[in-house]
Amino acid sequence: MPANEKPTASVWTRPRRPQRDQLTCEHIVAAAVELLDSEGIEALSMRKLGSRLNAAATSLYRHVANKDELIQLAVDDVFGELEPPAGAERPQWRATVTRIAADLRAMTLRHPWIAPELGQIGLVHIGPNAMRVSSGLLAQFEAAGFPADEKDRAAGTLTAYVIGIAASEAAYLSAIARSGKTEQEWVAGLRPASGEAPQRHSRPREGDPVQRDAHPQQIRDDDFFYGLDRVLDGLAARLDT
Amino acid sequence: MPANEKPTASVWTRPRRPQRDQLTCEHIVAAAVELLDSEGIEALSMRKLGSRLNAAATSLYRHVANKDELIQLAVDDVFGELEPPAGAERPQWRATVTRIAADLRAMTLRHPWIAPELGQIGLVHIGPNAMRVSSGLLAQFEAAGFPADEKDRAAGTLTAYVIGIAASEAAYLSAIARSGKTEQEWVAGLRPASGEAPQRHSRPREGDPVQRDAHPQQIRDDDFFYGLDRVLDGLAARLDT
DNA sequence: CGCAAGATGCGTACGGTGTGCGCTACAATC
DNA sequence: GATTGTAGCGCACACCGTACGCATCTTGCG
């Protein structure tokens, strides 16, 4: 037996490639999103991702040009969770835009790692899913009655607000997640040390103390929709001229 | 005099520590900002930064806990460029807030690497300089007449917009800078391939064709102030009740 | 059916990263 | 002058992204 072990080895000991599930680009991106969601962006390495797929790190490069491209693909993949608006009719434009904005925020909070990327991409290397959302939004502003040379500025204003506030929220939630506490514990533990830090999400609210302590995420929701309404108020005012 | 020259070697040949400028935390942060400005965030490494200061990489750790903290310090350092508003008087609140917003945007465009950090910090680990700006802004909204439980939401809305749009602009400018072209060349080279990408900064504008080609950065300015005015319109409307 | 050609995965290796550890050499104090 | 704290450094470790070439599998064609 040891005789022929050198050139070929037995059929049984020979390292058969273990049956694997085909390692496609879609699988890789899906696994990347999963890893990003569960461990954050700084924990994403090609080796770790490969081992999650029962593959070597370098195998991924057969399907993905490099890590940056992989992240771009992951970003566009989660944009696929959003459903672009169905139609564009003038009377409901504000309700529809509000829904899109809320969805975009919710998507960002589900995948907090996406926030810095959103800024970094800046809609320059925009993918197909993101583009569907983007042009759906544009169509809403067009239907609302904004002139052609203004509708993109209006849409840009809205998305800037949403991305800005969602990024801030995402960072806050990521910090909490890293600490291992719940949002309420975190806020409570922060309050005594506070007073020197009048930041947005940890400030003592003058309002109802029950709500203040019990539902910090309700406060975040209120903050988001407050600002969203103001932005839309300001935009809507342009249509009354 | 030669008596106490030590047994080891001559004073001249002995490896005197080359006179260095004292390697303080401030120097390190200043050099980091310089490096970040000139080469971007992915080019910042402790070794490269050390060599710029004629020091070993590990020497920096005497003054700075780790790379993340260094970046936070760098962020707060550039916030020092902003001057907080002097007073807070009701009639000029809008003009003052506009100035702060424009300054914040200009700061971000001077240091494009800061944009993703701004989102990531989310005003959680806010430094003293950033806090000065933040509370100065809050004071403006208070003076404007916003009730106590609303002024922080108003300020949050404004900063979300500014950070959101500035991050997008910064990413766009960084992409151009990496390409080595000027903004006009870049936009011109993009137009023929465009049509499938209705993104904000590269869209063909229906307006004056001269301005369209000649001053893309004027377009960016217009876009910024358009959105800023809408946001402030929406906020100001809350004061008329 | 046999064989050539291409696609796919992987082992190895290279140059880079952040940073912990313990040593040296200087500064200031007693 | 002796002591003690400390700034800086060299080394080392574990990890990273990824280029390259080889082994293997799949597929199309004669």
TrEMBL record, chains A, B:
What keywords does the record list, in alphabetical order?
Answer: DNA-binding, Transcription, Transcription regulation
**The entry's DNA-binding region:** 45-64
The HTH tetR-type domain extends over 22-82
Keyword Transmembrane helix attributed: no
Q: State the residue spans of region: Disordered.
A: 191-221
Residues annotated as transmembrane: none
Put simply, this protein is called TetR/AcrR family transcriptional regulator
